[in-house]
Structures are given as structure tokens and as C-alpha cells.
Amino acid sequence: MFWLALVAALYAVSQLVFVTPSMGLGWDETIYVSQVSAHVPAEFFSAPRSRGITLVVAPPAAVTHSTVALRVYLSLLSALGLFLALLAWRRVRDTRVLALAGALFATLWITEYYGPQAMPNLWIALGGLAAVGCFLDALRRPAARLPLLGLVAALAVAALMRPSDAVFLALPLLGVALYRRRPRLLLAALGGLLAGTAEWIAEAYARFGGVGERLHLSSLNEGGLGLHWAVGDVLRSVNGPILCRPCDVSLNHKPLELAAWWLLLPVLVVGGVLVERRAGRLGAALLPALCGFSVAVPYLFMIDYSAPRFLLPAYALLLVPVASLLAWLVTTGSRRRRRWATAVVGLGLVLQLAGQYQQLTEEVSYTVASRADQPYAVPQFARLGLTGNCLLTGEDAEPLGYYTGCRSVETSGNDADITTAQLLREAGRQPTALLLYPGDRVPDYARRWTRHTVVGRDGRTNYLVYLAPAAAQGEWVHTSRTYPPK
């Protein structure tokens, strides 16, 4: 197990080195973390979200408000998760091939970037990878209990993170279990899905009026699920932006050669499956390929936008047959052929590694810079009385609410959770502010509110803060209209 442990350890170290631990929390992250934080009010939790990632971040979030502590914790935990996911394959495939598959996955910029972030996609990937390994192990050892328990646990983790992804992931597993007439495997897979989805189902009835209504609201939130050709969107966003919605960037907004691996991936997967078939290990390559393509289906053909993280579960599985192909290329044939193959494969991996880390560095630099002004704005908000018992709405209300301790609400958009009338009633009870970017239209209800300016580190205006009259007349408001921190 040395090579698997080494890959996981290097993954952890690489995250700590290349993904700045002090990087501010993103919009989605603040929603997930706030659900279990002892320091801030819980933000609105919309229908498509699942609470799996909130359970993952609960230990540090319950005791500290430190972003660095959360990032370090997630870096170490994701590395441990990668090790356990690869370990599930130890009786199915050669350890060196598994280590190569793990290294290929761990060095994708998306995997590095999201390792220390409170987002569910990487954990679906690790759960899916472990689930397929346990399933194959259980096929080989019908009497063994451990792989069955591993299958239940792995699918439960994936379903806790996102039930819909877990269902698509498990479809090939259920089909194989039925085809092979393995009722224990079928029950284990169904049990894992049910165990992980139970909380989502219970919440559907408690908050949304049932499973059907929650699915309907989830579809509306995602822009209407249906048949959409999103392959082009995925290609445009494979190297960023981190959210392509609407995905109207051009195909050449980044060098296309950096996406060559993505275009080659289906070919390499098919090659890996054929190689394993010749070696008598068809299932060890075909099943992860089927599960990988299955879990990618909703993001390739059912939504009209894209984000690089959506396909993380697919990459984790598809890179298993890819690793098999690369290992076969450098270990079979004549000595001369092996030398040439090793040189070509080695050069390709070096170029791939360089491109991935170049993209990772650029993405981290951009993210750190774009989020740095939010904590910087906290003292300015405090001078306006917006700290603790207060209410924020508008632009960046969620992350700024997390940093200030205010409750965030929205009157429109996908996460609308309050009406304008309710907002105005709340404004009479606690300090309330509308946040706008410079140039945004001021809604009618806030035209009489007091306007203040919050600046960024460069001195330029970041936000226009419109304070509700009850808040604007309080003693906590300074007379100056611009409040740079001291």
C-alpha cells in the first residue's frame, strides 16, 4: 500500500502548497458551512442542495471560524478519502496501476482546487471510486462481507452529497447485479443509496412538500432539467471559468491545447478497456468506464450550463482504464518499443502536469484576489452597524453575511427566500441593508434608504450599501458616507 499512501500524501501536500489555505470562502461554501457553524446564522438552503458536505465540515465549523483551519482540515481529509477510495481496489487491480490512476486524478487542477473547498463534487467522486472498487471486489469474493459493507458506505457518502449523481453512478452497478443474479450486491447498492438519500427525502417532506415538489423546485433552480446538448459548454469551461452560467465564453478564450487531455479521454478509456479485455480483466476497466460515463450524463445532456467540478466523479472513474492503458504501453512489447512508449507517455504526462498546474495557479490567484475584499469590508460594515444581529440582501449577501455574522436573504433569483414585504417588516426590527455593485439599478423599495460606500483594498468602490431608515437613524452609523478601514 506504499504507493497508494504516497499518492495521497503528495495530494495533501500539493493542496497546502498550491491552494492558498487562507483563500476566502465562496458563495456556495458559506451556505454549506453556515448550516453547522456556531458563529453565524444558517443561510437559506435551497431545494437542489444536500447536506452531506455540511456533515463533512461540521467538526471544524462547530469550534472555529477560521478559514485556514477549515482548508487544512479538508486538504488532509480529502487526501485520506483518496487513499481509502484507491484501497477499495486493492484486490481488483495492480497497486501500481491504481497509484497511477490516483496520481492522474489528483493532479487535475480541478481536483487540487476543490480538495480544500467545502463543495460536494470531489466527495461524490471519491465515494463513486470506492463504490465501484468494492462492487468488483464483491463480485470476485461472493462470501466476503467487507466489500459489501464498503459498497453500502461508499454509495451512502455519494448520495449524502448529491442523490441524483449517486443514482446515475449506481445505474450500471444495479444493472450488473441484476444481470449476474447477485441479490446481495443489489441489496447493498440499493441500501447504500437509500441510506444516503434518507435525510434528503425527510427534508423534502419537512420543508418542500414532498419528493416530487422538491424535484420540481430543484429543476427550476437549475434552469429546467431536460434534453440539452451541454458537451460544448463543458469543453469551453474545462479550464475555467469555475461557473459557466450562461456558458457564452468562446472556445478559444483559453489555449485549446490545455484541453487536449479532455478530448483524448474517451479514446484513452476505450483503449484501456480493450487492453484489460485482452488481459482477462474486462470488468475492472469496463465497469468504471460505464459508471463514469453514466454519472456524466446529466452534465453533458441535461443542463444548459457547466462548471469544471461537475465532472469530477466521472474523471475519478474514467482514469482507471486510462491508467491501465498507459501501464500496458510502457510494459509490453520489445525493449525498443517500450523505450519509445515510455518516452512518449512520459512527455505527455509532463506536458499534462505542467498544463494542469499552470491552470491551477491561475485559478487560485484569481480566486484569492476576487475574494480578498470581502473580509476587508467587514470593518466597514461594522461601522454601519451591520454585524451580528442584522440582515443583508443583494450582491454577495451570502459571503458577506458569513463574514459579518449577519443573516442573508434574497427577494429574487434562484435562492429567493423572502418577499419584499417581509424584508421591509424585518427592516423595522433590525439593521437591514441592500448591497449593490456600482451601476446596479436601485429597486423601488430602497430608493429612500440611506446610501453608503464600501471600498476595496485598492480604494475603489466595491459596494453601494443602502441602509433601511431604522438602521440609518441608529447611533452606530457614522456621519461619513465612505468607510475605509483603519
Please, could you describe this protein's structure?
This protein has 486 residues and is mainly α. It has 19 helices and five strands. It has helices spanning 2-18, 27-34, 52-63, 67-87, 95-106, 109-114, 121-140, 146-161, 163-179, 183-207, 211-221, 231-237, 260-278, 282-301, 312-331, 335-383, 397-404, 420-427, 469-472, and strands at 391-394, 407-409, 432-436, 450-455, 461-467. A five-stranded mixed sheet has the order 2-1-3-5-4. α1 (2-18) runs parallel beside α5, α9 packs antiparallel against α10 (183-207) and α13 (260-278) runs antiparallel to α14. The radius of gyration is 24 Å and the shape is globular. Residues 475-486 have low confidence and may be disordered.
Give the termini distance in whole angstroms.
Answer: 53 Å
Work out the count of structural domains.
2
Outline: globular
Mean pLDDT: 92
The largest sheet has its strands arranged as: 2-1-3-5-4
What profile does the largest beta sheet have?
Answer: 5 strands, mixed
- What proportion strand? 5-15%
The sequence of SSEs as H and E is HHHHHHHHHHHHHHHHEHEHEEEH
The secondary-structure class comes to mainly alpha
| Poorly predicted runs | 475-486
DSSP, total strands: 5
Proportion of residues in helical segments: 55-70%
Radius of gyration: 24 Å
Query: What is the count of DSSP helices, taking H or I runs of 4+ residues?
Result: 19
For this entry, give a set of tags:
486 residues; mainly alpha; 2 domains; five-stranded mixed sheet; disordered C terminus; 19 helices
